[in-house]
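User: Fold this, then the next.

Assistant: Folding the first:
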Amino acid sequence: MLRNYFKIAWRNLLKHKAYSVLNISGLTIGIAACLLIFLVVSFELGYDGFQKNYNTIYRIVTTSTTKDGGEQHNPGIPCPAVEALRTDFPQIEKLVAVNSAYGSQLTVLGDNPNADPASSKKIIENNGVVFTQPDYFSIFNTYWLEGNAQSLKDPGNIILDKQTAVKYFGDWKNATGKFLKLDNTVLLKISGIVDDAPVNSDFPVKLFISYETLKHYADKYGYSKEWGSLSSNHQVYALLPSTVNAASIQRQLPGFIKKHDGLESQRQLILQPLKDMHFDYRYGTLGDHSTSRTILWTLSLIGVLIIIMASINFINLSTAQAVGRSREVGIRKVLGSTRSQLIGQVMGETFLLVLVSILLALLLAKLAMPYLSNVASVPSSISLLTLGSSLFLVITLIVVTALSGTYPALVVSGFTPVLALKSKINAASIGGISLRRILVITQFSISQILIIGTIVAVSQMNYVRNADLGFNKEAVFVVPAYSDSALMTRMKPMKEELLKSPDILSVSIASDVPSSDNNWASNFYFNNSGKDADFPSFLKYADEDYFRTFGLQFLAGRGFAASDTMHELVVNETMMHKLGITDPQKMIGKTIKIGSGHWLPIAGVVKDFKTNSLREDIKPLTISSSQTNYFTTGIKIHTSDIARTTAFIQRIWQQTYPEYAYESHFMDDTINRFYQQENQLSLLYKIFAGIAIFISCLGLYGLVSYMAVQKTKEVGIRKVLGASISNIVVMFSKEFTLLITIAFVIAVPVAWYLMSGWLQNFVYRIHMGAGVFLLAIFASLLIAWITVGYRAVKAALANPVKSLRSE
């Protein structure tokens, strides 16, 4: 019986090629899109799920409340808190500090610790270098290839992961016992090798340096014994026994803070579960990627909706085809087929069609895999077929077969044999036209939501790219600067050499560029007051050419004079307004003291510029000179011959810092990286909107095909009575225009709600005006008219004699 079902199903697919191609196309694209969504969502939700202690690992993070009621979130805690936590909370099983050293250079010295760094292999590691303790390997999964964790008790020891050891020495087995130099300062001996961390881990650590080394180089790497000092680089992780409740620890942490630093009203330590770490933007991760569960559930919902749309297509196309199969069904019933057998036949055909679609979807997904990393933060190396994805495809096969086949099976099996054999099956006998109209409305509601989402996302990202940031980001080339005492004297000569080129307009050495991830902040005092301000001042350090290089505009006063140390300040508009002053001229000459520093006069007020990304408010800012805090060189260049100019910069830089590896980028590339996830989401909306439109068009074609079959004689009569082709097209289009309009009314409030929530991620954002929604309805109607028009014209051109022959 089953074999017979599949044989007939295969013959029907071949007999009705156009119908089969339309159905398979919609299902193939829909299933392929859902499979890729499943891979992305599974990858993100699986972050660190492999950790054996996944449910009992916590990170201790800091939330600070400012005096004006604001909140600041920091993933770090003060350095002395580590030992204090061990003493005060003996019930914590393991506790480990992890201090990141971002942008570190490793010089490969090999067997000779005294090798010349200038002639040795140098590698910049922007992420994955940490100072930590032996207990790190008791908390997190680790497979040891050589050595053991106890070597990290001693200063000067480092452990590499396998991939890094291969990169440095060609073979990880040759690495142990060899020497590296960190930032041309810290000599390190390799004492062990561990296996690489999985790709979906928020702990992509490649080099583990002993924590005691950090203490020996406290000033260079920010280790402080002061409880008031807080750095996001210094993070602490705790492993709790299964018998200890995290809530009980959390209740004791306010008392712990009060006991040790007395800042209980401003600072709070919070236990953040490892399972939440990847999805909390406020604190970030040790890696460079985090996401939100909302985005993942949104993607999952889109996947489900696309599958539903593809199933709706099948229903519409199958019922449109059912009239043509009425005689076949009539003969089968006369020959003794039961209704259950007819249902089984239709479900078998559906199963076969869905199975073919899944196989084609696998091929399509395989072709798309190399491009998946462009639209989502997943590596191109992830596998397409896993146990999870295979189970997903099996469930998809069952669910889509049930969704797509049940209604057509009930319709076909319900034909009356006499009417079927006399070709009297029509809309009245099939019924369900109202259901199919509802399905088309559903399809176009979904597609219009995605169209509106695409328009809003693209418009917002265009706004971000073209927004006035308050400074000039164009043609600014950025290279590193080094503030070590031994290298500080090289800054000025390098700057002078660079300015000898006519292609270089200006050079500034600073802590960072105007818009960056930097969030250095401090308490401060204003105008000789003994009481500190109610909000922190965010800090940037730069030389006197900073304002000219980046095109910052002064509202009053001037930039500070050349100096290696802080002697004058420049503030921004936001700082001025938060201090209650409206006239920029009245700020000039007033004084500010940063933390426990000296009173410094305000030399100028600059117009506000975007200090971070457009997701955040502009922060109250002070800019001053401090050569010990310079890490970046910004170079404004002519664009007439960029290759020649950048080659000149590289040559001068390498002559100045021969012991360092050269790195460079344009400033606008840095700014674009702020919005990588939003740009990916915008691209995803475009792709899914295109898929939804394509599937909707197939659905429309199915319903128009059904109506064309039902109205064959009506169209013939109208043509005999003188109706033109345009009259026939209007007759078909009128109903679908109404259906799409109804879909639009449904889609608008849903899309407005969803995209308003997404736009809340940006402090600076577009306004969703009527134009966005009008463009969406116009696009939907245009696409629908083209789809309907094609099938309607085909029906209108049919010979009326053939249409009326059966009468």
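Now the next one, as you asked:
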Amino acid sequence: MKRAAVIRIIGTVQGVGFRPFVYRSAVKHGLLGYVTNLEDATVEVTVEGEEKNIKQLIKTLKNEAPPVANIQSIQTSWQPYEKRFKKFEIKKSQKKRFFFGFMIPPDIGICPECIEDILSPEKRRWNHYPFTCCAHCGPRFTAIYESPYDRVRTNMREFPLCEKCQHEYEDPTNRRFHAQGICCPNCGPQITLYTPDGKKVRTDSPFQEAAKLLDEGYIVAIKGIGGIHIAAKTTDDNILETIRKRRRRPNQPFAIMSPNIDTIKTYAVVSQEEEKLLTSWQKPIVLLRKSSNYYLSELVSPGLDTIGVMLPYTGIHLLLYQYVKEPALVMTSGNDPGLPMAITHKEAFKTLGRIVDYLLLHNREIVNRCDDSVLRVINGTPTFIRRSRGYVPSPIKIPAPNDEITALAVGAELRNTGAIIYKGNCYLTQHIGDTENLETLNHLEQSLRQLSNLLGTKGDVDVITCDLHPRYITSRLAQETSQKKSIPLVQVQHHHAHITSVMAENMVPPDQPVIGISMDGIGYGPDGAVWGGEILEATYQSYVRRGHLQLQPMPGGDLCTYYPVRMLISILSSTLSEQEIRDITRSHVKKGLPHRQKEFSAIFKQLKSSTTPKTTSSGRLLDAIAAAIGICYERTYEGEPAMRLEAAANFGDPSKIRLKPEILHIDGNYVLDTSQLIHSIMTSKHHRVVDICAAAQRTFAMSMAEMAVRAANDQGIRVIAISGGVAVNLKITREVEDYVRSHKLHSIRHRMVPPGDGGISLGQAISGVFNVTS
């Protein structure tokens, strides 16, 4: 029997070759009609033919969709057969809405077929054209101005198709059929090599010339799809010292790129799960352990046993590696410290001109700035350190109590993201960075505005959420917006947001409380102290504090974050006299305080002051441990002392030393005595440094887990959620998770957003939704 049907596919179905896939499938099943993109990011298929063939088409759509597509649902409306069509075709996108879809996909790494097109002599794009892409790969999020996803709404609108590309675009048998980003040397973007003063370098092959310069030791800026990177050799200490001096980043690890997985395995240990991540279509940076025969410069990641590595994900990288002789290149974000990555020629010449010797730039606009994503495999599970290119703006399904509530979250301050909850999904922005300055705050506002436009919310929200900290610039932004637009404002305590974030992505039911372990650097507590090592009983709406690290003074406030010896002295001050501390920290003071004994005396005056801030921060405790052991005396980038401590601990045996942590019960809360812990570390100096590091790190992990388990048993709760920036530490997270499971409790942690502050906007947003619907 012949029938007609209107089929609407909801999900990530625009910009992934879905319409050509539908076209081929419909023709195969002998159906007539059309397929089109709608403004709401869904795909609509109208067909006529045999009912059994239409049902077979629906089955094909569900089971054989392109790999990047993510179908949430397929809705079918059956209609009478009217013999309306003579063929099946792809129609132009239509400006109408029925549902809300998952918008466009993230950027997709170059596919094997396009790599072959670039490298095979018989192909017309052979060895010359870096912007080669098809319906299955290429820029998406970084290229689009607005939905629906059509060429006229992307950065390719400035490049009309030539006759040959037009033929490919219109040929249903070609994988470039209706691929919006296709182009060739005759009609697409071009790439040029420049000197820092903006002059073009005359060369027949910009890639060959750039590769030659890199091999000779020059530093080259390279414009990709989401921003401009700084590239250089990884085997020459002098070159890396030059980059660090010019960028004012003495120790921060650099991301690197190698041509293939076999080369990576010559200097790093790659597990099966890590290889799967590296070679996935997202092509993220993956944090790997250096191998025993590591031969790259130690200045790539000074003092660490890990290295962040990625594979080429664009034709630009691919062509560069046809000529570069190096096994790996530094490929780090091109920006001044604290500022967003450069994306325009003007920004490149202004901010990178003093850093690089040459610039390899193209004339295709980057619409949405997007840093590379960074992941680490912990206990077999990929864990985000930074969620951005390749993953944004993919939605995260959450247990929202009301799909009609739209929430906007502005995040915290460091390593920030924003988020929008809409129609039961949460959409995080790309990595924004540290919103301590106007440029990065503008980047956050612009990214949220663009996300809102793509979602179709038109900027309308029902609740705005932010951090509880009154001095965060993001909190002030949320307050001003709330007042200006008369929208409810919900301020979410920092560590509560960490826990609700991990709850949301694990679909914890609204009526199920959890015990949360939040191990973090800083977060404003309602008591005015700086929290950071917290055991919370939490729901999406509220929390009760059940445990924490011992409250310790922070002499000098933020100076403690830069000079860990300050925290070391502070933590010891509750168990030892000033003279005793002076005696056992003499070498630490000499190496770790700029003004040495004079500063030591000033610290003790600050410790006696009632105005000195106090903290329960896990970050500050780990900093103090690193200083006590002599691993790190000055923080030159966020998390450096703890990262160096972790690197040393990976070579140690924690069983060689028995540190006896004491968990107290004070005013209804479990409290880890960190003064006693630090003192026992300071008196263990006859052991190997790496063993002390391993034991100290393990003791911290086990103590946090023990407090959580006790709180869970007290309250009859069976689920423990693990979050906070420290949860990217492989061994600490593993120890906590294993301890919880050994006590027959269920542990959950992050898999879709970072455990650090990059995932906090999700927690803020969902707490906001629950608070306005209660």
